[in-house]
């Protein structure tokens, strides 16, 4: 895309911070609503929908500036296959985690009354509002199952993100893509939320986990069995994302005709589309504006 | 957009009145259905979806003529940043409130039998059909928490409205934008409806509140604790909207390349897009029609 | 749109028959599922969604050929304002009712086992699967309230159908419009289904009512109080549709610039768009195909 | 579409395998979540939505390469009307079934802990996670009713797939079509899931059924009455798909103007659109890119 030097790393990091903050304001917010209202103001389907819509709006906010990864597993997977600069992976990941952390603090603050009424002690009973647990803290799921669940869930996420943003494939135009990407997370929440609460995003899990730890949740880093668990939703998604992206390239990407992207010589395929289509989106708008002028 | 003098303030005010009426016919209507059927004909998710779809259809109806603010918090926030004329803010706000008032009277009339069967005394038990209460009248939420919840909720609303209508960003084309804008309200209802019933719109709350007060709800201006509450969903959203719009400009807007809008010199950035895209939408239609002609 | 004489009245009537059949296969089907599974396989939200999606797919099937009214209230309202030929109103209405009748017979046949297990006597307990009742047969709603509810509900339907198909307004392109139109019915089901089960369509109600009467539901034409009721969901929607369409023209239509449709001189405004946009849709496809050729 | 020999049968089969795998990862996954959480993490609506979204994403992944049938009933119906090569029907069907089989094994593996806690014996109580049963194993539905339910359900599916992909009709553009196609399955799940669990796809049912049989479900091929049942969701959908596709051609297809496809001489009508529109989709992207270049 064109840019008069205004698309700096600072801008990209602010966009990743802001987009992830939007994502978590909805994601952690909806769990807070469902848990504190004890089901009166929503259920697991509300959680699946609001998380997905949170992704949609986080992507709408940041896509043009940073590509809207909003997830270290996305940044690492894209970098692994040369679709994103490694030097940006750590800054992006820190900005994403910071955005999630700040958003979780806002939820913690506004929902303090409500949380206090259902779990004054800030125990594992409401820990799930902020971070994930094996079997959502309720079902007895082994740590290894939770780990492989997160590997698979994040693999599905990255496979589908590439599938719907690869311009050589059947990718939606930029201005509707955030809606479709959000639906991926809606569906993962409905089908893959049992074993480990579908973190599928280290920033989504660690940022809010830290925020809860610093605001009264002393056992935030442990699971319901008292074992350290915080590392699972960090390590497993990073592995799963790479596997899912790799599977996309092996199973779908290599069969797609390259000549559909004449202007793409030497360009980064998966990273490009989203920006490409944003550019085209604005270009299209400019074209369309003419007759109106 | 072009207009042969037909896009007058009268037309704009009628559009704001009508669009907000549509919004409230669905919004207050769905709460009436869920409350009077005691959950048999819907739950909180239905409320979130129907409110959001009400926004979608109110915007479809009014967007072309008035920009479809349908919310004084939107008009004030846009005016604060020079994106809307201050002189129109009061008329717009009054038209919006009047539309909400009339819609609420229609719901009150058609649902009179149903309300009578569950709350013959027209008490706080069904007040929530028309206007918001701290903790939805059920949970013990402090007024200050409700106030800050409304500031934050409306900040999220305005941030996202600008994010999805800024032509320099990844804005959907005009003919699908109302659907995306409606989804913002669906998600806010799912994640930010606990503490104060997500009024996030002074007209949405005061119009129906007044309608209920004039039709038998004597305590319409109070909360479940008997304290005056009606001012919270008016003042807090007006403040939150300005904060959210300002945050968008600081975190996202200033990093977006200006040159993507060559024809926009001296134009109002955020206000423009929706009208721009409507113009382009019709232009696009005209273009496409040619081959068919 | 162009047509080499193939777009005959026969084709239009078959399209209205088929489109309404699709609508009812989903609409009556989902109520049959929810009622016979006693909530195990869905709830009122499923009913709202499946009815709306039934409309979406019925419109996708018939739009190109007949304009996809699928509802006598639509045909009458369009004809009232000169947007549809009066001579076609009766044939369209009969085709719509016949399609609804046949679809209801299919549901009656396939769901016979299931209905038999929950209501062997085919009483008013499962009558609601096929046709509407005041207060859905459960709540005590007066006939007059049900009547006015149907007038208002259908007024909202027609107002919004015109709002989202008026090419001078912010109308979606033809290939996504059926989805948006379906969402209107989803929202009406969530907000206006309490008092009279949102028939808002004489064909939707009478066709299945007749089918149930002929297959064991002896009291199909009565309400839970034993009074003749079948006329309410026929008469009220026809009145409401005209009122809603008229309100659109008074409140929105007259403020929309006419010059946006240079090619529309003397054309029927509201009827045109859908066909126009279908034409443009195919034209656009043809254009786009060229580079691929 | 163009292809430099890269669109080989191997690529097509891998795409069908992968797309069906994605479909089943969501479809069988969501039933596993709802069943093992005993409703705590979803209900029948979640199942309808996640199955539909699974179709959406399976189609997004495979559409460009194989046309994304993901269902032998689709391949057979298209071939029956000359819209797909008979020689490819068996390979496609086997690839689809293999993809469903592998996806079911992944669900079986990751959900092993959860299934073990609710049904250690791997009985018919959790068989429904993997394959369909008459009346979902709960209601007493006759085999013949289940058979005709599957004929009708699959007829609706194929009728609508053709309706929304026929370029002469009101077909969505390629980049949004997978969303609309997914909604067809959402609606079928809500309205036609009572009698036989809406397999409407032999690969969806047999692949996971075999996977469950090989992993501890000894009675996987029987229904709750101990009778062999696995053949019903194979035979009935194949018949229903042909009937539905035929009905589309008789009721809608023959009334659509052929001249809308000048470039389509001698082309396969229903098969073409999806590929056509993908080509046009990429073409459109190329065009749009120019101004940005």
TrEMBL record, chains A, B, C, D:
Name the residues that span the membrane: 12-35, 47-68, 89-111, 147-165, 172-192, 228-248
The domain of life for this entry's organism is Bacteria
Q: Where in the cell is it found?
A: Membrane
Q: What are the record's GO terms for cellular component?
A: plasma membrane
Region span, Disordered: 261-293
What are the UniProt keywords, alphabetically?
Membrane, Transmembrane, Transmembrane helix, Transport
Q: How does the record classify its membrane topology?
A: Multi-pass membrane protein
Q: Matching InterPro entries, A to Z? A: Aquaporin-like, MIP, MIP/Aquaporin, MIP_CS
Which ranges are annotated Basic and acidic residues under compositional bias? Answer: 264-293
Broad class of the protein's primary localization = membrane
Example GO molecular function: glycerol channel activity
Family named by the database record? Belongs to the MIP/aquaporin (TC 1.A.8) family.
NCBIfam families xrefs: MIP (TIGR00861)
Spell out the protein name for this chain: MIP family channel protein
Q: Which organism is it from?
A: Nocardioides mesophilus
């Amino acid at each position: 895309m064109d840019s008069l030097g205004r698309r700096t790393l600072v801008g990209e990091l602010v966009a990743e911070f802001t987009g992830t903050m939007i994502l978590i304001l909805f994601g952690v917010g909806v769990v807070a609503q469902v848990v504190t209202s004890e089901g009166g103001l929503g259920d697991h389907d509300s959680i699946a929908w609001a998380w997905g819509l949170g992704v949609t709006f986080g992507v709408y906010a940041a896509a043009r500036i940073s590509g809207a990864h909003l997830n270290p597993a996305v940044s690492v997977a894209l970098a692994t296959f040369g679709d994103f600069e490694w030097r940006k992976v750590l800054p992006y990941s820190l900005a994403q985690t910071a955005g999630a952390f700040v958003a979780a603090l806002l939820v913690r603050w506004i929902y303090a009354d409500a949380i206090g009424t259902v779990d004054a002690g800030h125990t594992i009973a409401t820990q799930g509002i902020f971070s994930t647990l094996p079997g959502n803290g309720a079902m007895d799921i082994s740590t290894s199952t939770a780990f492989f669940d997160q590997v698979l869930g994040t693999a599905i996420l990255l496979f589908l993100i590439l599938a719907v943003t690869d311009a050589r494939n059947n990718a939606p135009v930029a201005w509707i893509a955030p809606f479709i990407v959000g639906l991926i997370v809606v569906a993962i929440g409905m089908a893959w939320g049992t074993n480990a609460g579908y973190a599928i995003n280290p920033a989504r899990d660690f940022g809010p986990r830290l925020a809860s730890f610093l605001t009264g949740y002393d056992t935030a880093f442990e699971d319901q069995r008292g074992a350290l668990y915080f590392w699972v939703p960090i390590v497993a998604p990073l592995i799963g994302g790479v596997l899912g992206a790799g599977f996309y390239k092996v199973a779908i990407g290599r069969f797609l005709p390259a000549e559909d992207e004449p202007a793409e010589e030497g360009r980064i395929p998966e990273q490009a589309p989203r920006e490409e289509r944003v550019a085209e989106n604005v270009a299209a708008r400019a074209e369309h504006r003419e007759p109106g002028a």
